[in-house]
């Protein structure tokens, strides 16, 4: 399914920098209202059980290898089996148009939302907004380490997309019950999971002095228990861009990919096609991602991703400096039924 390029010719100011970047982040009218996926309605659909069988096979691989990479063509029937609507596969390729400025990076635009995955109530609920912070102690070494960051919140077009919702369900089915090495000051006695979902568009426009780095921090971890990255599309991106490497935890935090020890590389994956999906146990690996390059140097390049971090709730005294709020979101609520075997 090809990426649909419907960017408008506008010249936004990103993070206060007066740089002209055409064809990015054109807002448009919502074609229809959000939907709520009800996976329980699929229980008498044979496609649902085919999807569950595939997910359980992937979960077995995840238990053994601590990561999985699923091609987009294989993800489509899984997500449809969970109930994703046909028209949402087209619409999800446009949601990155709605991303807003990143507070610390001039080459990226972002929206994000916080969710609670609750196996006890078998539901996924939208939580209120809270700052997002990663620290050096969590193997994240960058100029904004330890700085609380606020991003534009996920719009209804994003969380109301049944493909996005089925991706959250897919992830929950894969990681539920998978043992992990505990991170400091996370509450592993809690049955609940905190899921932070980012929609990120990375820009490169050399004529404007903007160079897109999906992971400026180099080799790093994301402070979560389970990380999932999903490719939504690209525009004018060179085919060798944005390759992901997974490194042994012995690798030095903060070094760039070309500086790493090849003997410590544990896997190499490349998101190239719509819905290509990587999922891994975050504390078992460090990882890095190479730069976004332009195919046509005269035009900007963009790369659109969903990045989904899932972990146990933070306790008081966590290295980020705050515990998680579990209050529900008041203006953009979501209550999504969840099926677990």
Structure, described:
- The chain contains five helices and 13 strands.
- The chain has helices at residues 46-65, 72-81, 86-91, 156-159, 162-175, and strands at residues 67-70, 100-101, 108-118, 123-127, 152-153, 193-204, 226-235, 243-247, 265-270, 277-281, 286-289, 301-311, 335-337.
- The strands form two sheets. Strands 1, 2, 3, 4, 5, 6, 7, 10, 12 and 13 form a ten-stranded mixed sheet that branches. A three-stranded antiparallel sheet has the order 9-8-11, with no helix packed on it.
- A hairpin with a 4-residue loop joins strand 3 and strand 4.
- The model is unreliable at 1-30 (pLDDT under 50).
Major sheet details: 10 strands, mixed
Given the helix and strand composition, which structural class is it?
alpha+beta
Beta-strand level of the residues, as a percent range? 15-25%
Q: Kindly state the number of beta strands.
A: 13
Low-confidence stretches: 1-30
The tally of helices reads 5
Mean pLDDT: 90
